Amino acid sequence: MKTLLQFKNVSKHYDKKTVALSDVSFSVNEGELVSIIGPSGAGKSTLLRCINRLIDATSGEIIFEDKDVLQIKNKSKMRALRTKIGMIFQNYNLVERLSVFENVLHGRLGYKSALVGALGFYSEEEKQQAIKILQSLGLDEQIYKRCDQLSGGQKQRVGIARALIQEPRVLLADEPIASLDPSSSKVIMDQLKKICSTLGITVLVNLHQLDVALNYSDRVIGISKGRVVYDGDPASLTDDHIQQIYGSDREALNLVVREPKEVAQKI
Amino acid sequence: MKINFLMKKRLYFLAIFLVLVVISIGSMSMTQFSIAKCFASIPKAIQWGFGNFYPAGDSFARLPEILLKLQETLLISIAAASVAAIFALFFALMGSRITKVNNFLATLSRFIANVFRNIDVSIWALVLLFSFGQSSLTGYFALFVASFGFLTRAFMETIDEVGSDTAEALRATGANYFSIVFQAIIPMSVSQLISWVLFMIETNIRAATLVGILTGSGIGFLFDLYYKKMDYHASSLVVLSLVVSILLIEQISNYVRRAML
Amino acid sequence: MAVDNQARSTLINGGGPSFQKERIKLRLMSKSRLAIRLTMLALAILTVVGFLTFDYRDVHLLKGIMSTFANFKTIFAQPQLAHFSLSEAIYQLLVTLSLGVLTTLIGAIIALFLGIFAAENLSNKKVSNVIKGFVALIRAVPTVLWVLIFAVSAGLGSVAAVIGMSFHSISYLTKAYSESFEELDAGTIEALEGCGASWWQIVCQAVLPSSLTSLISWTFIRFEINFGVSVAMGAAAGAGGIGYDMFMDSAFYYNLHEMGVITYLILVVAMLLEFMSLKIKNKVRS
Ligand SMILES: Nc1ncnc2c1ncn2[C@@H]1O[C@H](COP(=O)(O)OP(=O)(O)O)[C@@H](O)[C@H]1O
Ligand SMILES: [Mg+2]
């Protein structure tokens, strides 16, 4: 397996006091589905945003496709990097007043010049591609609907479509199911799994729910207070590890402690 | 314990009440305002109003003249708000924390908008009087400057409120600045921005009357003219025409706002 | 599946008969898009019509703009007092500020009662509509006209100014207050009604305390507005204060330097008020 992404001693300080990431190192292989788990405030969102430079890490190296993304200074190179990295969000972050179709096509803006992008001109091939992706996600009926008329699960699928039309090598998902009901959550996680296994796109997903992470991922990275405290198989995650990741966060533990072992065995 | 708490709360309110009373008395003496005279004059004013302040007799002959000035005032208000909106959009984009180009320009545009907003429209009118005299342009520019200041702040807040999530998403796709602005920020906020412009037009019509009185132009000038000639029937007709047009515009704005949702 | 295919081919062909040739539409025209387009078009047309029909009175536009910039420069770069001392100017500023305080307080007290009866959840729909309509009517008359109308019987001066300005404050705050009351959770009121609390008890024990912060914030915003209005009323309607000095400088002395000092004074106070109002707003939100 080829390594696609590698963190080497990455730290991020927002200011002197808030240390969001400290000395984070791990690597991700091509075609893997990796879950990043941890309590809220652990630094999960910061970690993902460091990869596509929405946030600039303070120190360390982030190697993507054999190049350190932190060294990119040039604006057009930065944009080129971002086109290769799709991202989906907890709150979907769609332009709610525009149609589903337009929102999906926004994923092509990274390939366009300022004028063409600003005017929103897309080629017919891009439109065909968007339709194909929407069909594969079961959204072909909704294509001309305004996004504010969709359900949460549908909105998240539009978000996935917007990321897929970028033709990315890696997909970053920041708590994609945190605002969804259980059945929509399952649809979204199944889609992510499918994207990973059939399209070969590497998926990094931040999750709050431990059981989902154990169910779907090839590998789990547990972080707590900005440090990696677990990196390995979901199956070998023990109660001790869980205690270490979530600390005395009772709420999260209650969610989890029920039957992590059983869930782990199901995989 | 509990009684103590209640006592404290009462004392606190009593203190605030006393402070307010002192401030009021101070303000009254500063402005030489007398409550007695106030209460005496309200019934007198009402009586006078019903006796004199209504359109009657040959005041209707003035209607064409009034409507002409009213039309001019409405157009000035609309033109000022619309043109100001274009400039305000630019400054708001520069100043918003989401769409700023750099911190220096952001601070500068916020500062300019702040200065323009915090100087009252009447002052702008008095300054512009020097260059534009009694022409419509005095009123137009005074309203333009005031609208610009207000709309910049309103637009900036709207963009900050509405745009941050989508702007982040488009930035993550590698979209450039202009794509983010025209494909995400503007579509997200356009109906609210127009809503602010409509509000500004309503405000401008009221302010135009004031500016007109100060600078001798538009409908305000006409009111002042009749008022000083003590032709109260005609001046009441001016007021009536203003009220009708403001209420009408309010209705239209509300309708448009609902349609734009 | 058949339906699916059909839907797909309509999409791809944009509904037209030609196959794979026609451009695919990005969106369908909706009522809201149409409304936005038409509104912008209407505003653009009216603006152009306005510029074509303005009463220019032989004023040269470009020259006027250039001289305005020169005047701005005089005002902001060379402020200089001539007809009164700084302490007198500050005294007049305080008079203007006092007018703002007084009209805001009067407005707040009366609007509190009107606002309670104008809130649909505390009053009945009929009363609420009557008050709201009345208040909207008051607001439709510009403040300066209220002041001048009252001035006929009360004489030009602070009494007419206070009454006229209070009218607008009452109207503005009644609308704001009643909307704050209406935001109140219906459950709270019901729960207290269930306890057998009287209407006045509900208002005093539940409604007022829970909307107090937003009432204060609205009142302060109105105070900010009233400061500007009282400058204007000084200039246009004989209310005295700093606005009157400004008017004299502009209309009689033609003294831009002194206008500069006044502008700076007003700017400082206005910014201070805005800052305070912002602080209070933030406190209310958190
Ligand atoms: N823009 C920011 N400015 C300052 N501190 C921030 C910012 N974003 C996040 N933080 C802080 O960094 C830490 C990690 O946040 P985040 O990455 O959002 O965690 P998670 O996504 O795991 O909940 C938190 O303590 C948070 O308060
Ligand atoms: Mg997060």
TrEMBL record, chain A:
Stretches assigned to the ABC transporter domain: 5-250
Source domain of life: Bacteria
Alphabetically, the GO molecular function entries are: ATP binding
| Keyword list, A-Z | ATP-binding, Cell membrane, Membrane, Nucleotide-binding, Phosphonate transport, Translocase, Transport
UniProt-listed InterPro entries? AAA+_ATPase, ABC_transporter-like_ATP-bd, ABC_transporter-like_CS, ABC_transpr_PhnC, MetN_ABC_transporter-like, P-loop_NTPase
Any Pfam family? ABC_tran
Q: Which NCBIfam families match?
A: ABC_phnC (TIGR02315)
Matching PANTHER family: AMINO ACID IMPORT ATP-BINDING PROTEIN, PHOSPHONATES IMPORT ATP-BINDING PROTEIN PHNC
Its name, as the record gives it, is Phosphonate ABC transporter ATP-binding protein
Look up and give the organism this protein is from. Sporolactobacillus shoreicorticis
Taxonomic classification: Bacteria, Bacillati, Bacillota, Bacilli, Bacillales
Automatic annotation (TrEMBL), chain B:
Instruction: Indicate where this protein resides in the cell.
Output: Cell membrane
Broad class of where this protein is predominantly found: membrane
Annotated ranges, domain ABC transmembrane type-1: 70-253
Print the keywords alphabetically.
Answer: Cell membrane, Membrane, Transmembrane, Transmembrane helix, Transport
Annotated transmembrane regions: 74-94, 177-201, 207-227, 234-253
- Give the membrane topology: Multi-pass membrane protein
Give the Gene3D superfamilies listed for this entry: MetI-like
Q: Which InterPro entries match?
A: MetI-like, MetI-like_sf
Q: Does the keyword Repeat apply?
A: no
Family recorded in the similarity comment: Belongs to the binding-protein-dependent transport system permease family.
Q: Which PANTHER family match?
A: ABC TRANSPORT SYSTEM PERMEASE PROTEIN P69, PHOSPHONATES TRANSPORT SYSTEM PERMEASE PROTEIN
The protein, known as: ABC transporter permease subunit
UniProt source species: Sporolactobacillus shoreicorticis
UniProtKB/TrEMBL annotation, chain C:
- Please state every residue range assigned to the domain named ABC transmembrane type-1: 93-277
Q: Where are the bilayer-spanning segments?
A: 34-54, 89-119, 140-163, 199-220, 227-247, 259-278
The record's subcellular location field reads: Cell membrane
Record bears the keyword Endoplasmic reticulum: no
Q: Which residues form the signal peptide?
A: none
**Disulfide bond keyword on record:** no
Membrane topology qualifier: Multi-pass membrane protein
The record's keywords, sorted A to Z, are: Cell membrane, Membrane, Transmembrane, Transmembrane helix, Transport
Question: Sorted alphabetically, which SUPFAM superfamilies does this protein's record hold?
Answer: MetI-like (SSF161098)
UniProt record similarity statement: Belongs to the binding-protein-dependent transport system permease family.
Which PANTHER family does the record match to this protein? ABC TRANSPORT SYSTEM PERMEASE PROTEIN P69 (PTHR30043:SF1), PHOSPHONATES TRANSPORT SYSTEM PERMEASE PROTEIN (PTHR30043)
Protein known as:
PhnE/PtxC family ABC transporter permease
